[in-house]
Amino acid sequence: MWQRLAGFVLKFRLPLLIALLAATAVMGYFASKVQLSYESNKAIPTDNPKYQEYLGFTKLFGQDGNMVVLGVQSDSFFNAGFFSDYVKLNEDLKKVPHVENVLSVPVAINLIKNDSTHKLVAQPLFKGNIQDQVVLDSLSNVFHNLPFYKGLLYNPDTHAYLMMVSVNKEVMASAGRTKVVNDIMKLGDDFGARHHTQVRMSGLPLIRTIMAVMVAKEMKMFLILSFVLTALILFVFFRSFGAVLMSMIVVAMGVIWSVATIVLLGYKITLLTALIPPLIVVIGIPNCVYFLNKYHTEYAKDQNKTRALVHMIQRMGIVTLFTNLTAAIGFGVFCFTKSSLLKEFGIVAGLNIMLIFLISFIFLPAVLSYLPAPKMKHTSYMNNRLFRTFLDGLNALVFKYRPAVYIGTTVMVIVAVTGMLRLKSEGFMLDDVPKEHRLYKDLKFFEQNFKGIMPLEIAVDTKKKNGVINLQTLDKLDQLSKLVAVQPDFAQPLSVVQGIKFAKQAYYNGDSTNYAVPNSFDIGFLAPYLRMKNTGNASKEAAMFTKLVANFMDSSRQVARVSVNMADVGSRRLPILLDSLKPRVNEIFDTAHYQVTYTGSTVIFLEGSRFIIDGLMESILLAFILIIFCMLYLFRSFKMLIISLIPNIIPLALTAGVMGWAGVPLKPSTVLVFSVALGIAIDVTIRFLVNFKQELPHHNLDISATVKQTIHETGLSIIYTSLILFAGFMIFSFSQFGGTKALGWLTSLTLMLAMITNLTILPALLLWMEKALIRKAQKKQLWNTLDDEEDVEMSKLGLKDREEGEK
Questions:
Q1: Which residue in 521, 652, 721, 729 could disulfide with 747, CB within 3.0 to 4.6 Å?
Q2: What span, in angstroms and rounded, lies between the C-alpha atoms of 627 and 751?
Q3: DSSP 1
């Protein structure tokens, strides 16, 4: 079949080339339409119970996590000059398109009791001539006497002040959010520059926007680096601009097709799909190396270019097909997960790894047929003295020091297994951002001064209409708030209770000792005042305060919302914290009469992280099973299957051990290593065993001679491609994202270990099973002879069937 395919490709090379280039031009048009993804929560499936709870919450109270926060730390905050400029910053932020609201000290509201109308009047606190230091000092004293704002807008102990900027949720899900975030950051940085202080900025919209921009920049950087680096390595190997140019064209077409696939499938660029174009370069180049290496090897035998091309397609076609297939399986199994983030990555990567095989299978033979035959300098790499010496050393290890190889490998595996026992699964919201990056430093500022800004939502369903405004419920909500506030990782909660307590303080003429939940005695006097009145100039501020309080009850006043900002505690600690909280919360809210739900963007993000890790684990197992079937189909032998798997399991175990000893946690990016590495590393095994299988008859079934020949012939191209893969994945280690960096160096480590095990353990195992393989090969050779002369020989021997012949 492969010989017929070789004839077909060479016979119709021109039409095939034209069709391939035309299709690439069309795909290039679609690739130009690619967009960045600004969606969140794609990691978790929509039928996940926690996600369903989150959807139910957003239906009642709207989307959370659309707040950008700005923080300053200054002892002179209430200095007239500083404060006046802070007021201007507040006003400038309101003018930024799509900014819906700004909550900060300058717009703080005070509630004033009006006995003549029996109303509480909402008035802006900082009014009048705030540039007069005496006036400002007096107003700041009033502000500090309002417990409602303590922990919410300022920290009196550290002199840190917070500004919350609410951004339209629709624009935060579009490309327009980049400009909004940039405008907010510019205003904040300009203010900081004027006052020689640093304005800290964070919040989920800002974090997601900056990370999306970083992803886009890194995708371009990795793509350029992968092209330049692989081109240099290819030129060093082949000493031919033609070979380099052909290979670069192949992977360039692969990149175009991969980006176009993202668009055609309706996907966008995410942190994972951004890795696909450079991955296509890294995975596509070995295809070119193996094809060209085989072409040069065959041409060197008899100087016949046509025969060399036919043999290249015939011998390397099936090998490259199966190596790309196993690599595609390593990525493609992610499409069976329920996570749309992983599914998109798996589908696009798996599909395009097979497409890069098709491109190289058509393009390389067709172009090589038009080019002149290779010259001596183009094939001199096959006699590279350094690599030949290295291969001779491997032969010596395999043939002379086989017991030492087994013992050394066993010791390393034992050490690796010990390291694997130290592995921990943990993910953080800013897990992949380097600690020296501004995003990380600013987040830590808010954690130190305000206990964090990651949103956690607690919804309390009273199971009856108007149940929230019941005094008993308000008292329970206050108990919940106090319980949460004393936790070291949770900030001061905000709920309708804080508004009611503020109102009671106002009723008692601003006495802060009365900042408490009204009792049955208070409520009779306070009830009329709770219907607040807005004064003329204060209508906007009063409406904002009223809306703020109303946002913490649903329209039927049945469900209360308690919003808590918290630290980025990670996927391991968050369940522990919530589990420790739940029994005490259940003591406050009887589960027979109340239903308490814990949700919010933080819970969903960390649940998504846990879900991805579980999905990746399942995918690795599935990939392993599918690769086993591929190997069985290719070699039709359980013994060869075992031989092929051992050299690939060992590198994965060693990498897991290194992660354990180095303290690298299991998280989405690091778990991804095992599936990617398994799919690529098995390629080396396939190439070695197929070459061994093809060469065995030419050495009269002499296992030792065939192993030696295979190490020298296939070993050279294995080393070249392993070096290319090592360098290609090491590019990712220059990423700003810790996860991508870990993916790079861990995958490179695994592939180099796989190269060593496949050039030592694999041939050692072949020699160990030499007798069994000889018997199998002799039996197969006998029946191949019978097949070729079946009619004649069967009639001569008088055999009716193969069973009789075997006897």
A1: 729
A2: 17
A3: -
